């Protein structure tokens, strides 16, 4: 039983020690934030381009009512 406890604690220590360092985590976080900011900026630009063009709405009600009247 003591050997099992010692083995489990050694494996747990190795698993915790093998994780990324604080610097690596901070770098990965900065890269993720940069990627998200680029995507948000692209979406905002596409939305502003869409709103600059005049909106044309399809009037499905009028086409449905005329086709229903002809039947």
Name the descriptors:
elongated; 71 residues; mainly alpha; 3 helices
Number of strands: 0
Q: Could you tell me how far the N terminus lies from the C terminus, measured between alpha carbons in angstroms?
A: 85 Å
Shape: elongated
Outline the low-pLDDT stretches.
none
DSSP helical segment count: 3
Strand content: under 5%
Give the overall average pLDDT: 79
Helix/strand-derived category reads mainly alpha
Q: From the structure provided, what is the oligomeric state, counting identical versus distinct chains?
A: single chain
What string gives the helices and strands in order? HHH
Helix content: over 70%
Backbone CA Rg: 30 Å
Q: Could you give a short account of the major beta sheet?
A: none
Overview of this structure, please?
The protein is mainly alpha-helical. The chain is 82% helix and 0% strand. It has three helices and no strands. The chain has helices spanning 2-17, 22-52, 60-70. 0% of the residues are buried.
């Amino acid at each position: 039983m003591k050997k099992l406890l010692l083995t489990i604690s050694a494996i747990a220590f190795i698993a915790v020690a093998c994780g990324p360092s604080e610097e690596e985590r901070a770098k990965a976080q900065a890269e993720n934030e940069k990627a998200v900011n680029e995507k948000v900026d692209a979406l905002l630009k596409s939305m502003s381009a869409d709103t600059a063009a005049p909106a044309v709405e399809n009037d499905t009600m009028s086409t449905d009512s005329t086709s229903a009247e002809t039947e």
